[in-house]
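Entry 14. Structure prediction run on the chain below.
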Amino acid sequence: MGCEDGQGLGDRIARFRVRRKLTQERLAERAELSVDVVRKLEQGQRQTARLSTINALARALDVEPSVLIGQPTTFEARQEGDSPSVLALRQAVSPLTELLGEDADPEAPPTIGALRAALRSTERVRREGRMAEIGVLLPQLIRDARTAAHAHSGAEAAAAHAVLAEAYQVAATTLAALGKEDAGFTALERSMEAARRSDDPHLETMGVSTLSSDGGDCSPAEQEACDPKYDE
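Output returned:
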């Protein structure tokens, strides 16, 4: 996934940290993260981070998460092939790691609270039409939710599958809107599978209408904000 400034995640974290006159220790404290995470990101020992980690750093640095991740190549039309943003979504929905296996993850699985917060943030970005940011936020959310679903058990695993189902629904809607119905259908199938393993009986029903909607309906993540019954 290309970024216009040519910098990596760690470079941008360091740049904003210095601009805010923060030490690595102070940034870690404000973000409620280990200083080792901040240090390894800035030194380039780690090239990626959980969306919850990026959100925490963004709050501590008073910037949008997409600013830290970097402006991605947008979902613009191309003559040949898919844009990097579309490819990132395709790869998140159907990752090669399913065939090759995944490397050990240096971060602990995200908490359910962090996943739900990341889902709400990503869904808000989508509804505001900030499609360039979806290209980097949504794939990471899907990976985080999948990691949590595999790592947790019992009620926490079911809750993680609920977030994963909704993330796949957003991916299905986004891909279908971009004319990538094949990838959108795959995302929908994965959403239904995750919904069956979740703790929310309504998700499977909602998934059926995902591709036929115009993208304006509320997802479960936003239901409290847009359902009139919550205004009573």
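The chain has a mean pLDDT of 79.
Filed with the rest of this week's runs.
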